[in-house]
Amino acid sequence: MMRSVSNGVTLIAGNGVLPALFAQGARRRGLRVCMVAHEGETEARSEAEADVVRRIRVGKVRALFRALDSFGNRKVAFVGGIRKTRLFADVRPDLAALGLLKKARDMRDDSLLRVLAGEIEARGFQVIGCTEYAPELLASDGPMGKRCPARRQVGDSRVGFELLSALSGHGTGQSVVVRSGVVLAVEAIEGTDAAIERAGRLGARGASLVKAAKKGQDLRFDVPAIGPLTVRACAAAGVNAIFLRSGETMLLGLEQTIGEADRAGISITGVGH
What we know:
There is one protein chain. The chain has about 270 residues and is of the alpha/beta class. The chain folds into two domains: about 5-130, Rossmann fold, CATH 3.40.50; about 140-270, Cytidine Deaminase, domain 2, CATH 3.40.140. It has helices at about 20-30, 45, 60-70, 85, 95-105, 110-120, 150-165, 190-200, 230-235, 255-265, and strands spanning about 5-15, 30-40, 50-55, 75-80, 125-130, 140-145, 175-180, 180-185, 210, 225, 240-245, 250, 265-270. The strands form three sheets. The protein has a six-stranded mixed β-sheet, with helices on both faces. Strands 3-2-1-4-5 form a five-stranded parallel β-sheet, with helices on both faces. Strand 2, helix 2 (about 45) and strand 3 form a beta-alpha-beta unit.
């Protein structure tokens, strides 16, 4: 039987800086942080922020369940992503994972994570949001740096948000790049930064990056995010305006991201519904 620990939280950690930020926020609140780290995905700096780490391979669900049981924390959070290109390349799911795949409607992130989260909660855990201990990372309304977007770019943001809303049910990414009303790139499996680079090759100078969650997206474990690398990709491509859906999009490394955008002459603006 699972032992319950009230002053701890378990991270099911993927890649990127978010697991480290989540762990820091949890520890500031006096919580013991346990981490299930994925080999080849979770970074060492994230593991260093946890009190206890158990490493597993991607797709080994039985090992995941064993780790959760051994930690005993009631609260569990999915934090950070797994590279989609890897999911289709070298993952060898165990029998437990194959059983969950049969329950999923399709191979989209939302479908797979919902099934896994449901199974975890059926085992007595509570799946919490990945911003539970870092709400300050969510985009606020209005300009978040020194720069403001041009009027034309505000119009481009409307085109981008409308397109993302229309594409919500089709499993595409959460970002588009728009210039003068023309869509230059739609994020797919390659990720945001690669989509920005592709837009740059098509003439993105003065374009806008627009990012938002999908309709009905479960924000407990899949929150759209940008960070310093996104800003650098925009600067290299000529994109000089970023629009984020406020309250449902994160800025990772908040001060660094905004600082880099200011220095590069890129505006970051939060837009409500």
